[in-house]
Amino acid sequence: MTTTNEIHDLMYQAHQLEDGDPAKIALFEQAINLADSSQNDRLAFAARNSLIDAATFGGQFHKAMAAFAWCLAQSDKQQTFTSLWNLLWKYKWMVMNAPRYPQIEKPQLEKMFTDAQERFQAYGASLRPLYRAMADNAESLWGEAKRRELLELYLSARRDSLADCSTCELAYEVGEAERFDDPATVIRKAQPILEGRLTCRSQPHGVLAQVLLSLVRLGWLTEAETCHQRGYRLIRTNPNYLWEMASHITYLTLTGNLSRALKLFERHLGWVINTKERAAHFYFLLAVWFLLEQVGETRKRPLKLTLLATFPLFREDRTYQVADLKAWFQKETETLAGRFNRRNGNDYFDRQIREHFDLKELAERVRLQASQPPAGD
């Protein structure tokens, strides 16, 4: 088999695999290495272009960023092996996800945002998807006023071929309603996705996690459990859904299903240990800290957990003191919050911690609701 055929074969194998399968990313990386060593720029570009997609939707976005930078540089040299439209489509993912890495400094992010806007304008494209991508991180980076400004620009900008799909745009509206603690609007807006009338590559996976808190606030616990079961089945094998997994753990914690929440923590701890995407990492750490806080209030005996050997507190006897685990997750969460806050120049992530622990009141309300006898008894 020639090198060219080997590269094509590796890429074919990769394309057969599901998002989240680490072998998919590994196969594209092998194809890239072969293409680079044989100085086949066309196939090196094609393999990286596919890697951007696989890594973005497979929980290894740092690899997507590196591959995208290489492809963009090649395109700027007028070695165009794909359409400019294709690169601009992927640039949206860079704008949305890069702020989730605190090691990327704010001026560097802002430079990237400006570059993306200039490229979209030169192409004649609407800035609508970029406004949405920037608005997604705007409150943490610049504050609420900037977020509102970008949201208004997004809503007023025209849709074109580079706009996000209507399902993703609706999911963003669901998130906006959730941001303002409007559970009834969250559920109303989410209905087309929850009912399967609108779907896409990442939905209903995300929305099924987004609506959990609102359903609990409304007291619709049967519906919440249904969404949890559906949502978990969709995301359980893909580490790209680390934030959603944190939401499922929090849902189980709020509804008193502590054993089930601990099982998800045990099963998916490897995702947070292996990820380099620090924002989702933060929310998973926070969800587990909150879980362990609730566990510690009712349990004094040690926990028996099967945790990864790479976990810093790993014990061969599988016996863990709740207080020790809680202290570790608290420290890690607060340390990561500090990194983001220093980069952003504000206390946004500290506020996220406080708001999450305010959910204790909701957990208590759910417990009281569960303890009340049915009407008429």
In short:
The protein is mainly α.
Task: Outline the structure in words.
The chain has 377 residues and is mostly helical. The protein has four domains: 1-81, no CATH class; 83-164, no CATH class; 180-233, no CATH class; 236-366, no CATH class. The chain has 18 helices and two strands. The chain has helices spanning 3-15, 22-37, 41-56, 61-76, 84-97, 106-123, 128-141, 144-156, 166-179, 183-194, 205-218, 221-235, 242-254, 258-274, 278-298, 322-344, 348-357, 360-371; strands spanning 303-304, 319-320. A two-stranded antiparallel ribbon has the order 1-2. Helix 13 runs parallel beside helix 15. The N and C termini lie far apart (76 Å).
Model regions low in confidence, pLDDT < 50 over at least 5 residues: none
Distance between the termini: 76 Å
Number of domains: 4
Largest sheet: 2 strands, antiparallel
Mean pLDDT: 95
Give me the number of helical elements.
18
Spatial arrangement of strands, main beta sheet: 1-2
Describe the global form.
globular
Helix proportion: over 70%
Oligomeric nature of the chains: single chain
Radius of gyration: 22 Å
**Count of distinct strands:** 2
Order of helices and strands: HHHHHHHHHHHHHHHEEHHH
Beta-strand content bin = under 5%
> What structural category do the secondary elements indicate?
mainly alpha
